[in-house]
Specification:
six-stranded antiparallel beta sheet; 20 helices; five-stranded antiparallel beta sheet
């Protein structure tokens, strides 16, 4: 590298062509610390990689980084930006393009929520060059994901289709004119060749199209005067077609090019019907010529657009494919053939069914058939045969493209290799289970140590029993939320408040008291971070109940009720049926302090306890965010 670039600090020398890129120079010259993105060296690797990708692509691309949509784009996008370049580089897309701020705000919000969006021939009114301008664009938006799986930027592929759309609109008008011309022979230009005397009589439009003086053409001119305008590469084929029609009497129809006086090229569709006399000689050859230049330009523009799509698809790391509306696969990019190693075209139609793992094929096809029937987005994980012969996990996705009437005209999909991520996830689960098993062993060892210590110090037995039971409660809480595989997970294990309560009440004779314990109201899922303080709370309440409350006499009853109160979860523990009047203790014990610490200190909630005549009532209010919080690291995609 001739100069430092935070984008290429780890990849060696920048290719000469890229080094000459205007936008790479502007990127290196921008003080990113003054923007919402901060210094480029501190950007997420995913954002840097996306920047490198767009800078090396000839397709117009832009990155909208962060929720503000800070714009980073490549040389191809400069023409799209028009007069707003280079001021919009490094600025928020919302302020750089105020006339479409609402549209871009919606796009950024939806992409950050996990969507991928495509728009074909989206119409806008831009003021990019100081005046109102009607513009059509093909737009594809997809998220750029950081290491933690969150969206850090929006990747926008922008292809201006204004010329093609306008050409197609002109083509529609041309076709209408063609229809009228064929009916009235008077729209673009008419001609009538009197063959024996070699005189071509035409109207003004036809004459000017072929570069002949209209005054001369109205009185008849040799056909050679008109043929001179035909492109040299087309003269022979046009002459042969005319000779064939004159010999057989068949209808003449030919598309060819005309060279205008200024050197420009016009395409025409010439149609005529030779008149044959009784001797089989052509005596007249009348017809019309219709200018189809706009139609040809539209076809050429479409071909260029198709080439652009295929170039982009082949540049992508994912396998890209497309199908007809009925699901017939008719296109795969180069990555597909590199991954599978199959001959080109061998997986068209339903040919790719043989690429699935035998355990995944029917499931993948069931999801695909559902998408074809409903138009829903297609997404499924399955194993695909690699060219090495092994099966690798891939993520298959597809979205439909619809016409103006909402009818699906094509499906576009991708296959992303996620095999390595799957294997890492499986290894992580094994390690988590091993750690969990060892933690459970630690709880068991601690309980054993406490029991042994209590034997040598009888005066501490009561304290030791309380401490051991609290550790056992923490062990049950850990077992409640520890990682489980599909095979090790107990069928009846529910990660909820009510489920944890049932598990912790088991040592207190839950089965014998089943008819005296009632669960009511709203249950809620709990995260592993909340399980331990909640377990300590419930254990202390149950211990006190066994000593002094509902669990200490046969007529006692317990109601555990839950309530979702906006952003908080309220849990109420209500004991009743106590034959003796319950009084508040004169001093607060260690158990009471432990319950307050668990609720208020660890969960950020509120702890209230009142003593009714027939039993104690405890009301706990905890933010839902604290209850649902997990200490597990989010799995990377």
């Amino acid at each position: 590298m001739d100069s430092y670039s935070p984008l290429f600090s780890r990849v060696g020398r920048i290719p000469a062509k890229l080094a000459a890129s205007e936008m790479l120079g502007r990127f290196n010259g921008t003080n990113w610390k003054t923007t919402g993105l901060g210094a480029a060296e501190s950007w997420p690797d995913a954002l840097k990689a996306a920047c490198r990708m767009i800078l090396t692509s000839p397709i117009p691309m832009a990155l909208l980084a962060g929720r503000e949509g800070i714009m980073l784009y490549n040389d191809g996008y400069i023409a799209i930006a028009g007069g707003r370049h280079p001021q919009c580089f490094g600025a928020s897309v919302l302020s750089a393009w105020p006339e479409v701020a609402e549209f871009n705000t919606d796009i950024i919000g939806r992409i950050f929520e996990g969507d991928s969006l495509s728009f074909k021939d989206q119409n806008f009114t831009f003021h990019r060059n100081g005046v109102a301008e009607n513009v059509w664009l093909d737009l594809d938006y997809s998220p750029i994901l950081g290491d933690d799986g969150s969206t850090v930027a929006v990747l926008a592929l922008v292809v201006e289709t204004t010329k093609r759309v306008m050409a197609e609109q002109e083509l529609a008008q041309s076709r209408e004119q063609l229809s009228l011309a064929l009916g009235s022979s008077a729209i673009v230009g008419t001609w009538d060749w009197h063959v024996p005397e070699d005189r071509v009589y035409s109207d003004e439009k036809f004459a000017r199209l072929y570069g002949v003086d209209p005054q001369v053409a109205s009185h008849g001119a040799p056909i050679a005067d008109f043929i001179r305008a035909i492109h040299p590469d087309d003269v022979q084929s046009v002459g042969s077609a005319m000779q064939s029609a004159m010999q057989t009497g068949s209808r003449f129809s030919k598309e060819y090019r005309l060279v205008q006086e200024d050197g420009s090229i016009n395409w025409v569709l010439a149609e005529g019907q030779p008149l044959i006399d009784q001797n089989g000689q052509c005596i007249r050859f009348p017809g019309i010529s219709v200018d189809i230049t706009a139609q040809k330009d539209a076809v050429e523009a479409h071909a260029r657009s198709e080439i652009g799509f295929r170039t982009l698809a082949n540049a992508m790391p994912q396998m890209v494919w497309s199908t007809l509306p009925d699901g017939f696969h008719d296109y795969y990019n180069a990555r597909w053939y590199e991954f599978t190693g199959v001959p080109e075209g061998s997986t068209d139609g339903e040919g790719w069914n043989g690429m699935f793992h035998e355990e995944d094929g029917e499931r993948a096809w069931a999801v695909w058939r559902h998408s074809l029937q409903t138009g829903d987005a297609y997404q499924v994980e399955y194993r695909l045969r690699h060219h090495s012969g092994v099966y690798r996990w891939v993520l298959g996705r597809a979205l439909p493209i619809r016409d103006d009437n909402g009818e699906i005209i094509r499906w576009y999909g991708t296959c992303t290799d996620i095999h390595d991520a799957k294997m890492v996830q499986a290894e992580r689960e094994i390690v988590a289970h091993e750690l969990s098993h060892r933690i459970k062993n630690i709880f068991s060892v601690l309980s054993g140590i406490i029991s042994l210590s209590a034997r040598s110090a009888p005066e501490s037995r009561n304290f030791a029993d309380l401490l051991r039971k609290r550790i056992e409660a923490m062990g049950r809480a850990h077992d409640f939320v520890r990682p489980h595989s599909r095979t090790s997970r107990p069928v009846d294990l529910e990660t909820s408040i009510f489920g944890l309560s049932q598990r912790l009440l088991e040592p207190f004779g839950l089965e014998e008291m089943d008819n005296r314990i009632v669960f009511a109201g709203d249950d809620t899922v709990i995260g592993d971070s909340a399980a331990t303080p909640l377990a300590l709370l419930l254990h202390e309440l149950a211990t006190n109940s066994a000593k002094y409350g509902a669990f200490s006499h046969p007529n006692g009853r317990l109601t555990i009720a839950g309530l979702h109160d906006q952003e908080n979860y309220v849990l109420e523990w209500k004991e009743s049926g106590n034959p003796a009047i319950v009084h508040q203790p004169e001093q607060e014990g260690f158990g009471s302090r432990l319950m307050k610490i668990s609720v208020e200190g660890q969960l950020g909630g509120q702890f209230q306890r009142t003593w009714d005549e027939d039993g104690v009532r405890v009301r706990v209010s905890v933010p839902l965010a604290s209850i649902l919080r997990s200490s597990k690291l989010a799995a990377r995609p």
